[in-house]
Amino acid sequence: MTVKINKLEIENVKRVKAVKIEPTANGLTIVGGNNNQGKTSVLDAIAWGLGGNKYKPSQAHREGSVNPPHLHIVMNNGLIVERKGKNSDLKVIDPNGQKGGQSLLNSFVEELAIDLPKFMDSTNKEKANTLLQIIGVGPQLYELERLEQELYNNRRAIGQIADQKKKYAAEQIYYPDAPKVPVEVSELIAQQQTILAKNGENQRKREQVQAISQQWEMERQQIENARQQLLQMETQHAETSKNLEIAQKSAVDLQDESTEQLEQNLAQIDEINRKVRANLDKEKAEDDAKEYEAQYIAETTKIDEIRQQKAELLKNADLPLPGLSVVDGELTYNGQHWDNMSGSDQLKVSTAIVRKLKPDCGFILLDKLEQMDMNTLNEFGKWLEQEGLQAIATRVSTGAECEIIIEDGYAIKNETVAPTSRTWKGAAF
């Protein structure tokens, strides 16, 4: 059985002079009234009575009162909680008549139930952390989120490098007519030397023909001038004629090769090699871009797997409210983050999480419900009844939605409430 408040009596606490309330067991009990009449003092008194001295107001004793503060709270399990006397000492008596203390109250009173704004005012990530700790998947989810963030950061870095590589490769000039590898100067020089040597040999042979021809002509003249040496010279001339014939035959088919192309290649070798290196750089940049793109895709696959594991982890968890989840470290309800939730949904989420923190605590305290319209109030009240939860709340109003009206520190009857509505008790002690 969850523990709730059956009856409470408050006297001389902050602005409250004397108030007695019997809140409804399931649903919403609204304490109404104008500003500065003592509505919030009622909630502060309950928090002090059940939560201990750390919730004691800085000026707990009502100004102008001779009598000290007095609190008397009866729980639905029969437990009686009192604070009275000069020092407002705590007295807790269980149903069996045995005395207890704050530790007994702490066993069923959830701190956030008497200080719900503490939870509602926390950051979205803090709310999510509270939920994850409750359902017991915090460590696993944190590890998955750490892995996801690590992969995400790594993927982002890879993606940036891949984009840079693509851009660099696209900016490189490419020469389709250039060879695949740089040209070696030594090879061209060797080819040139071979041709020059061959041409030199051809020239030597041509010069040889010319020299023999000149010799033949000189000998012919000598024959003409020296008939007395005719026989000797004719013999020598005949031999020379043979040599001339042989030389002419070997030189007649000689063809010189041109070194013009090699000379051009030598002159252009630096330009050719520059184009080759440019092409190689572009191909390398394109290969790098493809490699990093593949790594990016692989990291994306890992991130998707991590996110699927997170979804499965939360799907199988014992969540306090259907539709409640944690996405990217933030609390969501029916797909909406906290700042996009309606006021009613925010209260539902907060109440459900607080109840899950300490299931034995069946009540919560709420302040300043004037921020909610009547439709939202009615929706939230019906949900509380459905869940079997008790909420005691304040609202700047004297309308029919208020079971209790606080006026100048006293509880007065709300004449606008129908006779068949919830039980109301006045300020008598």
From TrEMBL:
Ranges in coiled-coil conformation: 206-309
Domain Rad50/SbcC-type AAA: 7-315
Pfam families named in the record: AAA_23
SUPFAM superfamilies, alphabetized: P-loop containing nucleoside triphosphate hydrolases (SSF52540)
Membrane-spanning parts: none
Keywords assigned by UniProt, alphabetized: Coiled coil
Entry protein name: Rad50/SbcC-type AAA domain-containing protein
